[in-house]
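Hi support team,

I'm opening this ticket because the web form for multi-chain structure prediction keeps timing out on my end. I have pasted the exact lines I submitted so you can reproduce it. The total is 1282 residues across three entries, so I didn't expect it to be a heavy job. Is there a limit I'm missing, or should I split the entries? Thanks in advance, R.K.
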Amino acid sequence: MNNEAQTEEIPDSTRDLDIEHDRKLMIEDLDLWYGDKQALYGVSLPIAKNSVTALIGPSGCGKSTLLRMMNRMNDLIPICHYDGKITMDDVEITGKDADLVEIRKKVGMVFQRPNPFPKSIYDNVGYGVKLHFKPTREELDKIVEKSLKRAAIWKEVSDRQHELGTALSGGQQQRLCIARTIAIEPDVILMDEPCSALDPIATAAIEELILELKKDFTVVIVTHSMSQAARVSDYTGFMYLGRLVEFDKTDKIFSDPDNELTKRYITGRFG
Amino acid sequence: MSYFDYLKHNRARVTLFVMSLSVILITLGIIQTLLFETITFLSEIADARGWFTFDWDFSGIFSGAGAASGVFMLAYLVEKATTKYVSTKETPFDSILFPKQFVIYLAFIGIVIQLLFINSLLLGISFLFAFITWRRLAAAINKQRYGMKVSESTLWQNITLGLFLVALAKSITMNYGGALGEFFLTTQWTPTGACSDRRALCENMSFGVNSLLLTTLQVAFGALIIAVPLGVGCAIYLSEYAPPRLVAIVKPTLELLAGIPSVVYGFFAFIYIGPLVVELGEYFYANGWIDQPPNVLNPINGAIVVGIMILPLIASMSEDALRAVPNELREGSLALGATKIETTFKVMIQASLSGIIASIILALSRAVGETMAVTLAVGTVAVFTSNMFLPAQTMTAYIAQRVGGDLPFGEIGYLTIFAVGLYLFIITLTLNLIGNRVLAAYREAY
Amino acid sequence: MKDIDLLQKKNRKLRDFAETMGSSGLAFTGLIGLFFLSILVWQIAAPTFIDGENGEIPPANEFITESDYELEWDYPNIDSSGELTTDPIVLEISWDDGDEVHELQINVISQRDVYEDIYLNESGLSTEIVEVGRKTKFHIYSTLPQSVEVKQKSGPVPSADETGKPLVSTFVIEYDVAVLYDEGIVFEPLEILGYGTLIFLVVTFRFPKPSMLRFIQKFTGKERQLKGLFYALALVTIIAGNYSLASILAALCWILSATMSTSLTKGIERLLHSGRELSETSRLKHSISNRDGLLMWSNMLLVISTLFIPLEIYIPFLTERYQDIFSPYSSGIRAAFYGTIWVMLIAMISAIPISVGAAIYLEEYANPTKTTKLIQALVTNLAGVPSIVFGMFGLAIFVKQGGIGWGLGPSILAAGLTMGVMAMPIIVLASQEALRSVPRSIRESAYGVGCTQWQVTKDHVLPSAMPGIMTGSILAMSRIMGEAAPLVVVGATAMIVFDPEPLAGLVGGNVNFTVIPIQIYFWTSEPDPAWHSMAAAASISLIALLVAMNSIAIVLRQHFRRRLN
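Hello R.K., no limit was hit. The queue was backed up. Here is the completed structure from your submission:
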């Protein structure tokens, strides 16, 4: 397959990216390489405050890479290097001397597979808090309870907070990971296909939770499921082969996309 | 289908099965030879001392160990009985089970203090166990009254039962009344006494394996003290921090270190580490911390060299354990804003702990069984002393040294090496069983 | 303001400090392996070379005027009843290739501390008869610039034979004390050329450069002549090398070079034929037939040659000299070297077939019954049993006579079998690992075309697992090669001055043997530091052999891994 020829056909969404909300994050002209292979081509994207932004696209189109860029998780991959700028509240976070610890404290992340630490539920949630603060026992108790309640898992685990977090079911584990993330009250929560390893009931619970979370946080979600994007998100970006093809309000994208590629992808006539 | 037909149709299967049976044969052979000669050895001691074989002395029942066995038994029975038949109603025992908080603290402090003053350690520990059983029972009964489920812990019962058996055995053999008692409980190891007939057993000989065991443990645990921090640190560095190019150099180096024969390490200890340790010992001696001048051959020397030997083993096994931890855990912690070192120590080590522990146990087993390096580094004088700058002898070194001269089969020296060998075999086999069990459980977890 | 910001914050500087300190501390522990290895290598290498040059026994040449030589007769001059043997010891001392011959008579008397030193110079001995007390040292001092040969003609000597008659032995006063290398490299030029050609071809195969190819291209069309030339060279090499091992290996190099060069020229021809340029070197590997196989064989040949370099470059320490209790620096480990090779061979023959069979049964055939679970558990745990316990097993089963003992005596055969038993669990585990790594799909597709279980195992699973099994076996062998503990128990002795007889345990003969680790052990236990230098030299030889064996394993593994992928 000849990648070069195909990527040339994709138009860049160069038009002004207007959003109604305040901007929380702004990605400007981001190029990214894994070794010699370029994974992102000049992506620009605004992330609206207190809203849900969904990134959709076929596998390997770079949406997870883009997401991981927002809290600099890509720095863990030695062969990865990038060019471009991401700002959060008009402060650049992609600089060489940016404080990764502070960035990741402000931008939390939930992963594809639930990854609770092999600690008790209580310690899982308190872990992040204890990293950054020196809470007293009572304060920590309060934070853990609040976070578990906000993650809608409190009812299930309130009487067994000191059991292993890994002993929970998949959906509960994922909600525990969300509780862990919101315990340190980040500004932004990134979700990398949070429901791909879960059954429909657990997925529904997580989706409900996302809608709940958007009141306090800015949520960016990567998903394979277009119906999920339509259900939970306010804005949607469609990516293809490392480029952002189209970005707009979710209603617009799903009803009347500007781009032919987007239309074909959404209607399932892709390939 | 007759057996003949079965054989004919499954020729390959049967042949291969017979081949694999050889493993059982070897194990049986090892156990049989060791056990057979050991029993001969013990009965010979018993004969020479004018005892019956396994002469039991029940007077020990009335000693501290005897009392301890009683307390352990009681704790075991109470725990076992109560977890089965619990009445949810209030009973007369409630005032004992749920006293005021300060009474509990007082009892706890008293029990901790008595550990210092009661002569028999076992008895002290038994009181501690009784206390813990008391509190566990109270908690369990409390839970049941509030309608919660009580998880039964057979592990605790097993430990109590095991300690009961230890205390019982100790109380029975208290007065060293038997060949077993002499072998396991005395500390004097002089298997070649000045007798008229060098080969027979006489009064001047004594067979207390503890002097060999003490040195073995000194060397093995000393080795662990050196190898565990370095080995685990090395493993963490290689799996979490090191750039791939450095890993490509360090890993083969560790493999090379692991492949160097132990006798070469022994030579290294003899010419290089020994003199260094002597310098340290001279300093100690000058300050009066030890009462005899140091020798080139000593357990510290052995501990250092065995530590270097097991370091690659711990490093590579721990690294495997760390690499087996899914990457998501690492990313999950970093995404919360943890620094790398916080991730390593608060998440990665906890996640791979059982793998690391398995590697340490297996390395301990290797250290206990190590022979040539220890023989060359520690010396050949069986003494029971805490001064680690003097020559001593480990169990393996005794076997190697004793067998080095021509040993006629069946004489007492020949029998002693099998008794020591059996003890060594049991220790290492136990360690291996535990280590491999832990490792298998860890592999299943990931 | 969020609720969480009300909490007291942790000190960021402290956290950063912990990060730096922790990572550098871990880096330090990570480098500790390298550190220990360098100390170890230095400490082992140092005595061989440094003490060798200005050793305890100064060379008797024109720069250093005297060299002394100790003679010791501790036990041999006491007979079985403990009485002193009064037979005089007669030494024949000669130099200048036998032009100067002198006899020295030594009378041993029962008093101690009576001695007289003897001086050698151009004019002869300072005295012809000397009286020496029992267990007393005396010295022979030499001021001659060349080596002096000392030969015992009569009298009790350390190695008396069974009848008590002395064996006449030869001692040499050495003036060259470099231990490991003696006369330098003794390659024939043709042999070096053979190796060079092969290495050149291997390099051309691996990393083809247009200039090299252009050079080889000249031979296109003359393959037959080239082949003939190489074969002729092989023949000449063997004859000129007097049928020695080195010459045979070199001849193999020539023959392999012939095959490789023809396939290379044909490959180039094919490359040009398909319309490509010589500069397109990356295409070349597809146009050479059997490229991987040829490379594997040449690598094997080169590694094996490296393994036999001791024989080729003539290290008398390893292959010529026996232990000489009187002069450490002229000792060698010939007996131990051959002992090691025999023990390894017997261990290999006895252990590998049975272990591989057991591994196949456990991995391919066994149902999870109690028996097989027991066998599996035993294998896993036997691999961790201390080696000395295996030695005791060998002592009771193979060495001892009577009962369940086979009565082989402390012989090579008993030692080899003991080592085989020790290697077994290791080989079984490695083979199981190799068999397990064969993908299920291979088995399933073989069953799919109607193979029986044995056919599947033999034709499909075993070939794929073979490299793993071979690697595991070689590594197990290299591990037992360094083991001394079991052999100490089985009864290896240090003082051996003859080549071991592998079957002596069965058919009778001298059963005594020694191996390199045992030699190191006993030499380290000697008080004289000169022996420590020899132990260091033996250690280096042992490590070199181990490294050579491991590199064979690595070559094999890499070749087969590439083929599997």
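A quick check on our side: Chain C has four domains: 3-53, 67-173, 189-312, 330-564. Let us know if the file doesn't open in your viewer.
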